[in-house]
Amino acid sequence: MPSAFKNLQFTALFAAALAAVLVAGFQYEVGEKTGWQKPTGKEPETYNQWASKNRFHIGDTVYFKYQKDSVLVVSSADYLNCNTSNPIAKYEDGKTVFTFDRPGFFYFISGQSDHCQSGQRLIVRVMHPSEVEAPEVAPSPAAAGGRDFGPPPVSSTSKLAAVSFFLAGAPVGLFLIPYLFV
Ligand SMILES: *[C@@H]1O[C@H](CO)[C@@H](O)[C@H](O)[C@H]1NC(C)=O
Fold first, then answer.
1. Are residues 122 and 60 part of one domain?
2. What is the pTM for the complete model shown?
3. Is the CB of 52 under 6 A from ligand 1?
4. Ligand 1 centre and the CA of 88: distance in Å?
5. By CB count within 10 A, which of 36, 60, 111, 163 is most buried?
């Protein structure tokens, strides 16, 4: 009984946490343990190799942790040339959280050109909402009947509804669980 109780409680907490993540977006830590710094050459992967393993969505954030450095958001041309002279945005607070507010490419470089030249730069591609939903959805009966147009079967609204259900349902579930074992 105690273990079943714990499992149920865990499941409810997990559902609530998952719902919170779906709403708030996911935070990626750039460079994980080493953070945002001039590469030494001993890293297991480059910043871009790391980025290519992840799927970034609108609302997700990247967290840059650094000392005596900076994060510049730049154009693709300035990214390629490590040109730090006209950034779109510049952060120097050492703990930068950047939120992706649109699909497409984002270019980040160190504010120190030689650091950028050594590989302290990052391209992130944020997926378009249609890319996120389409592959996960099985063809609906309507689509099978030859209806190729119209909104995808799972809309953002119904996703939000599912999330609200979790948010509303998890506390109720926690409240009810003890009674199952009385
Ligand atoms: C950086 O960009 C500015 C403005 O676009 C340009 O004038 C300058 O020559 C560039 N510097 C380098 C090193 O490419």
1. yes
2. 0.65
3. no
4. 14
5. 36
